Amino acid sequence: MPQPLTARRSAAISGRVRVPGDKSISHRALILAGLATGRTRIEGLLDADDVTATARAMQALGATVSRNGDAIEVLGQGVGGLGVPDGALDFGNSGTGSRLMLGVLAGYNMRVVLTGDASLCRRPMSRVLTPLAQMGLRVEGEGDTLPLTVEGTDDILPIVYELPVPSAQVKSSILLAGLHAPGRTTVVEPVPTRDHTERMLRFFGAEVKVETREDGSRAVTVAGDAELTGAHVAVPGDPSSAAFLVAAALICPGSDLVIENVLLNPTRTGFFDTLREMGADIEIVDERDEAGEPVGDLRVRSSGLRGVHVPPERAPSMIDEYPMLAALAAFAAGETRMEGLSELKVKESDRLAATAAGLAACGAEARIEGDDLIVSGTGAVRGGGLIETHMDHRIAMAFLTLGLGAEEPVTVDDIGMIATSFPAFVPLMSGLGAQLG
User: Fold this and answer.
1) Which of 34, 271, 273, 306 could bridge 63 with an S-S bond, Cβ 3.0-4.6 Å?
2) Measured on CA atoms in the order 92, 135, 315, 23, is the torsion positive or negative?
3) What pLDDT score does 45 carry?
C-alpha cells in the first residue's frame, strides 16, 4: 500500500550527522570483492535495498557475503571464479547493480537471467548491451529491458568503445567485462563521468590507465586477464544523500549543520559547486583521503540563494541531484537554467517531467525546453501540493525537503521506495529538526 508523508515548514536544521555510505561505491565494492581472491572487509556499506540486491546477486554467483560486527566481509572467488546461480538474479529497483552485473557476466560461459521490479523492468538496457555484444555477450530475444536472459563467453574480446553519451554505468560495465579479456579494453568518454570504478579497480590491484586526449575526451583502459586481491574498503558518505540535508539547512532559517565524512570526488560534487555559485554558505572541513577517494566534512548554514546558469557539461557530476537543485532554485531569486538533462528522462521515472510537475503543484514556475529545465525563483515557495513520486525515491525526498521551507505543507504520495537508497531519511531528518509526519 502507498505510504504518503507530509513535510511542514520547519525551524533550524542543526547538529552533527553522518549520511549512509555512498551507493555507487557500495555496489562496486561488493562486485570487485566478489571478483577478488581472498577476503575483503567493507566498512560503511550502504544498508539499503539496492545494495542488498547486489549482495544477494554476488552470493548467488558463489561469493560469500557475511556481516562481522559493523562491517561486511566478502570471500571472493577471483576473476573467472564465479559460478552458475540457482535462479534468476533479482535486482529490485537497482539500475546500477543490474547494468554493472551485465559486464561481470559477459566474461562467463553461462546462461543467467536478470530481473527486477516493475520500475526497473521499464528501464532500457540497450546502451550497456550494445558494447557488451561487441565483446561477446549474447542476449536471448529482441527486447532491451529486464527480464533478460544472457550468456557470456570464455573468449571475450577486448574493445575500444567511444561512449555516444556520458554514462558511468556503461563505462563501468565495459571495464568489468574487460577484466576477463586478453589485452586491453578502452572506454572513451566525451566528458568525465564518476570515476569510482577506475579508482576501485586500482585499489583491488587491477592495471588501469587514464589519459585525457587532445580533443578533451577521456580514455580509460583496463588490462585484461586481471588478478584482484581482497582489500579493506571504507565507504564514505553518499553526496547524493547529503544533498537533501544540505538543501534543508539552506532553506530553513537559522540552520547550522555539519555532515561528516562526505565523499568529495570531483566527479560527484557538481551540486555543491552549483550551490556555492548560488550563494550557499557551504564550508569543507578536514578534507582527507580514504581508500583512494577524497572525503571531508560539510558545514552548511541557511543562506539566501540566487538563480544561476548550470551548463550541460556539469550534468554527469550531479545527475542524481537535479530534482533537489530544481526545488532549491524555486527558493532562489531569479531564473535558474539547467541544461543537458536528457539522462533524467530514463531514470527510475522521467525525473525531468516529474520535477517540473512537482514544482508546478507547489506554485513554483518551471518549464521544460527540450532537455533543459528552467525555474523562475521568487525567494519563496507556496507549497501545498500533492506530489506524484512515480515510485522514484529522489523525487520523494526532494519534495519532502522542499516542504520544510515552503509556506504550506507538501505531501508526497508514497515514501516506500526511499528504502532503495536512504532508509533512514525520515528519522534522520526528523532528529535534526525537520517536521515530517
Assistant:
1) 34
2) positive
3) 97
